Amino acid sequence: MEMPPKSPDGSEKSPQELVTSNTGSTLYMSSRSESVWTSASRSKWDIYHKPVIVVSVGAAVFLFGTVITSLSCFLTHNKSVYKMTGPAFLSLGLMLLVCGLVWIPIIRKKQKQRQKSQFLQSLKSFFFNR
């Protein structure tokens, strides 16, 4: 027969006490995104900082790949290393650059949808709370 778990103070808890603990409400509270439930306006940097960082890193890696690839044309020693790593950095930088550039319109679209949703919620609460 299985023994019920003991709490840190040594007392035994029944299975019903374990099920009715407040973990459900804790999970519910932590699952809500604060930006959805609060209407505090955020700055442009708070909204766009991640895609801007991805675009900047992508551009830097792309330029580094361009330099490495061009070194394979001018330098004779370690030419095979430059020919292998240069295109790898070029492709990685281009991938990051494009991902960041695509991310920005997605954020803009989400911001517009959020503004429409907040407007509709306020309109709905205005009419139904009378």
Automatic annotation (TrEMBL):
Does this UniProt record's set of keywords contain Transmembrane helix?
Answer: yes
User: Which GO cellular component does the record give, naming just one?
Assistant: plasma membrane
* Transmembrane region(s): 52-77, 89-107
Chief subcellular location: membrane
Q: Name one Pfam family in it.
A: PIRT
Q: Where is this region: Disordered?
A: 1-26
Compositional bias (Polar residues): 17-26
The UniProt entry's coiled-coil ranges are none
Keywords of this entry: Membrane, Transmembrane, Transmembrane helix
InterPro entries reported in the protein's UniProt record:
PIRT (IPR028068)
Topology in the lipid bilayer is annotated as: Multi-pass membrane protein
| Gene Ontology terms, MF aspect | phosphatidylinositol bisphosphate binding; transmembrane transporter binding
Q: Where in the cell is it found?
A: Membrane
Q: What is this protein called?
A: PIRT protein
Q: Which organism is it from?
A: Sterrhoptilus dennistouni
Q: What is the lineage of its organism?
A: Eukaryota, Metazoa, Chordata, Craniata, Vertebrata
